[in-house]
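Work Package 3 (structural annotation) set out to generate three-dimensional models for the target panel prioritized at the project kickoff. During this period the team completed the workflow that converts sequence records into discrete structure tokens, so that structures can be stored uniformly alongside our sequence database. As a representative example, we reproduce one entry of 148 residues exactly as it appears in the project archive.
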Amino acid sequence: MVTGFIIDQMMIRLGRWLRMAGYDVSNPGNADDPELLKLALKEGRTLITRDRGLSEACARAGASCMLIKSDKLEDQLREISGAGIGLKMNPSRCTVCNGPLVTADESTRPEHLADEPAWRCQSCGKTYWTGSHWKRIQQRFEDLRGQG
């Protein structure tokens, strides 16, 4: 059973967008292809890559893998959506470190966000809120769902 995703270095930006949709996306940094494959199998994750050779190695090893064809984020998001992976804002993962988000309480919420919903990463402390950037991403997800 797939419990999340693992990305290679070429997919960092896409991985952040998947985290905004609430997916558990591991990024093991500069891991080489054999290490990525080993981690994908060990952790039950689907490997997302643009590397055809790595994708073929996944198939030979019986690992779940998605080969992304485009180098453009918008097209990558279309490929992900077309593969049945839902893209909807879900504030549960940090886009930077993949740590779990919790609702920010008064002691952890920046003062200027007193009236905004906000979340804080339990691992790195980054704060997220529903500002204009968030709303643009949400709109992009909605547009992608409308195209499917």
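The longest helix spans residues 132-147.
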